[in-house]
Every structure is written in C-alpha cells, then in structure tokens.
Amino acid sequence: MVGEKKTAGATADATKALSGWTPRPGYEQGADRALQLANEIGYTFKPNRLLDQGVLGQYSASHVEPQMSVVRPNEPLGVSKDMCTNCQDFYKVLAKYRQVEQVVRDPSGTWSFTPERMVMKWLGQKWRSLKMAELEILSSLIQRVTESVRAAPAHDLSLGLRQKIWMLMGSERVPGPGYSRRAALALAAARHVLPLWELKYPQDRTPHWALDLAEEVRVGRLDKGEAQARWQQAWDHMVELSYSDADDQRGAAAGFSAALALRTCLEDEVLPQSEVDEGLRDNRIDAEDMDASMFAAAAYAGGPSWDASPDPVRRLQFWGWWLFDAVPDAYRSVAS
C-alpha cells in the first residue's frame, strides 16, 4: 500500500498530499514549488546525493510537510509520521518569513512554529504516561499559559501562573510527590542555564556544589541544617557577584538559579495560602522569595523582565522549554 511507506498529510478541508514527487490520483503535488519556496525564504534543504536524483534538496522538499506549505499555505496540517528535523527547521524559517504561526500535528503530538522562531509541542510523547484526567488539566493549563507568555510584551511568565502549575503538580509538601516534582523542576531550570555560569566564571564551582547538595536534600541523604547554612553561603556569594558584574548578569542569574533550586529542595516553592493571583509578578515579592525558574529565564534572556535590555525572544524560548520539556519531565519523574 502507498500509505504504508509514504507519509500522508491532510488539512481540515480534506486536501491531501503524499511524500515524493511522482503525481498520484487524488493527491496534490507540490515538491517543485516547495523547493522554490525554500529558496525564496532563504532555507536550504539538507542535500542527499543518493536520493536527490541530481536536484540537491529535492528529496527533503518532497516531504509532505513542505509540500502542504505551498498547497495550502498557513493551514494547520496533520501528517501520518513524525516530523523529521529537516522539516522542523524548514517550518521555523517559514513561520518567521510569513509572520504566521504554522501548526503541524504528527503521531507524537502537535507542533507550533511561531514567527519568533519558537517551537512548542503539546500533547506529545512526554505526556503519554500521565493519567487522562491529569493530562487534560495540565495540557489545558499549559496551552493557556503559553498564550499568556506570547501575548506579554516582555514574553514573561507571571509568578501567579507558575504557582498554578506548581500546585497542579500536587498539594503534598516535603517529602510528598508534589514537593518532589517541584524540586525536580527547579533543579532542571538551574541546570539548563548552568553553561552560562561556566562561560562567565569557569573557575567558580559554587552553583555546582549547590546543585549537588540540592539533589542530596531532595532524595533525603543530607541533613537540612547543614544544607541551610550552605544555601546562605551560596546566596551571599551571588549577591556580591551581582553587584560587581552589573553590566552582564547572565552568569550571576544562573548562579542565583542554582542557589534557589537548593532552597526549593530545602523548603519547597512558596505557594499561596488562598486563591492564586494569576497576574502576580516577580517584582512584587521579596528578592529572597523569587525562584529558580525566574532567575533561569533572566539568565537565558540576559536580564529580568523588568529590565529594558534583555532579549524577549530568548525569554520566550526559555519559557517554551520550561513549559513543554521541563514541566512534563518533572511531573513524570514521580509516580502519582
């Protein structure tokens, strides 16, 4: 059967295409036009000299996703096989060129490619091990939070919305499943930006030992009294660095993220005692009450959201990673 080895794609109006450049009855053919479009938008399909048949990039351009981008421009698309990295890269450039979000659903989930060149994926493989009720609640919140982040001028994720996500991870405090997931999430955020610290302070191992201690606390192998004293030491060190390196605070922000990941493992995140204020921002709480993810986002973007100099697109990219990779990984790390 053709469909068993070809990738099929279709839009909501039942327009269909198959991978390849040979015309087939009932299917649109757009491989040549996809190759032309790639040239127009400045994208080069990865060549395959064995399969391109003398036209470099032809094989990748004949994949159903690029074809449907010219057959039905900007229409949400469903495909029968997982997107390859070549098609993902093409859609990143295409979304920026057209300034229109491009949506593709494959068997592993739904991809969203935005004009900011942010790539998001929801309801995919990382959510499959969750119970259906958990899946529906979490995925609904993630999608709503994503819309909020994209709409915000600085592409910031409010503290209030982060608190809602933390609370959905479980009401249990130390040492229950909810705490363990929040601790895992804080550690993931700090580790994600640790290379920015290493670029700035290659000889300083403070965040490394802070994260090692945090992991020991999380699994119950270290006395909290000793770890509390070391947390204060790490925090004070980051405060001094943030004063001395005011022009480039990416490294210091990454260090604060590690210190606060240790604090989360010691005490859990600060959760509201009453109804969550979704509009609550980080600049409305004390500095010591901020969390690892806020500082990780600041490190990735080049500064906090209230500063005029950071890169909002990089902040959007960080929160996309946090929402669609770090959160489901942290949730799945602990059984319900």
TrEMBL record:
Pfam families: Imm5, SsdA_C
Disordered: annotated segments: 1-25
InterPro entries according to UniProt: Imm5 (IPR025675), SsdA-like_C (IPR057517)
Superkingdom of source: Bacteria
Ranges of biased composition (kind: Low complexity): 8-17
Domain Single-strand DNA deaminase toxin A-like C-terminal: 16-68
Domain Immunity protein Imm5, residue spans: 142-328
Protein's recorded name: Uncharacterized protein
The organism of origin for this protein: Corallococcus caeni
